Amino acid sequence: MITIYSTKSPKSEAMFRRASEVIPAGVSYGARGWEPYPFYVARASGSKVIDIDGNEYTDFWCVHLSAILGHCYPKVVEAVKKQAGMGLHYGLEHEQEIEHAELIRKHMSSMEMMRFTSSGTEANMYALRLARTYTKRTTVGKFEGNWHGGYDGLHYAIKPPLDKPPSGGLTPGVINDLLVLPYNDLEETRRKMRGKNLACMEIEPVMGAGGIVPADREFLRGLRELCDETGTLLIFDEVITGFRLGLGGAQSYYGVRPDLTVLGKIIGGGLPVGAVGGRRDVMEHMDHKKYRGEDYSFHGGTGSANALTIAAGHATIKVLESEPVYDHIDRLGNYMRSNLSGIFDRYKYNAQVTGVGSMLAIHFTREPIKDVNVLARENKEEAKRFFTHQLDRGNLILSPELPHTGLSYAHTEKEIERFVKESEEFVKSATS
């Protein structure tokens, strides 16, 4: 099947060789690379990306799940063009950032105050510094399989083996400041926290890179109670779920109010962005006029509240408010999960689907999935074959070893039906 892809993408192959001379692995993010080489995009519109060889793909990856409206949504493009005419980035304050913060708070009332950053990784970094400043504690709780970006202080226990660093450069001190907690296991979390005096615990309400695995509602409610009991700040990483799982995010969906929230992706309309926000009494420790020294938590960044990003994000949320985006994408997501599950059951195929709303992942195992530990036992070679099968047929999903999808407003029923049909063809061939 690799041969089919290779024969129709010679320009991308040449581009990959060129890229490999100046960019490690030929890509700017490992998740975007696959064997034998990735394709290189020439343009994108709606649900489609077109590579430099002229091949068209239906994009089920959606800019790392951030393009909830699809590529080049007209109202977002119009807002960006208007802002570009007034300035790309000022490096100074502007009214639009206030309006955007007010709009976010309107839908996520837990974010009483907030600060913008240039990425979700930055937002997570500042959230942890703020939590430590506020509580005067050091140790941070993070959950197995949860992805919070590339920040040293959280880049651990991402995938099995959980006790091995996923990257070089992580010092023993950084790792020792973490308490790794089990996802979806309240009693074991309580036991491991005993006597630890955590500054905060941070969790993805729906585990993203770990396989689009939703947390149990009672588990999250139990964490809220546990944090209240122990004086620990509860941080929700909603970089993915924020404004994808509804206007109120996962905190509204689950009915659990965190102390701090980290956002990204959709609040910038798919452009580089992040934000950390939450309780006023906590956030005010970023106020350099109120606090000094160890009571003050520094936050800054040349690109923070970039005017172009703010314009794109504001226009995106306005569309989410006024058009039936969630009805559309959640319906398609439910259809996709239901039909894929039906195919796997009907053919007694060794795979299953996880997810919620417009997000889903395909796992090549029948072992029940409640956390990340099962990933090490999945059939990754079968996953790669499925990825290649879809790629040859014009469907882009990532990653090859654990297919994720995030649907957009631009996707159509026919595109979903086609993906399901191609999936059945693959399963039929694999089980015959």
Looking at this protein, list some descriptive labels:
Aspartate Aminotransferase, domain 2; 16 strands; 15 helices; 4-stranded mixed β-sheet; alpha/beta; 432 residues
Fold and architecture overview:
- With 432 residues, this protein is an alpha/beta fold.
- It folds into 2 domains: 2-72 and 324-431, Aspartate Aminotransferase, domain 1 (Alpha-Beta Complex), CATH 3.90.1150; 74-322, Aspartate Aminotransferase, domain 2, CATH 3.40.640.10.
- It has 15 helices and 16 strands.
- The chain has helices at 2-7, 10-20, 62-65, 74-84, 95-107, 120-135, 172-176, 186-193, 217-230, 249-254, 280-283, 307-322, 325-346, 380-392, 413-431, and strands spanning 41-45, 48-51, 56-59, 113-117, 140-143, 178-181, 200-203, 206-207, 213-214, 233-237, 260-264, 274-278, 352-356, 359-363, 395-396, 404-406.
- It has a 7-stranded mixed sheet with strand order 4-12-11-10-7-5-6, with helices on both faces. Strands 1-2-3-15 form a 4-stranded mixed sheet. Strands 13-14-16 form a 3-stranded antiparallel sheet.
- β10 (233-237), α10 (249-254) and β11 (260-264) form a beta-alpha-beta unit.
- α4 runs antiparallel to α12 and α5 (95-107) runs parallel beside α12.
- The radius of gyration is 22 Å and the shape is globular.
- The protein starts with a helix and ends with a helix.
- 49% of the residues are buried.
- The model has no long low-confidence stretch (mean pLDDT 97).
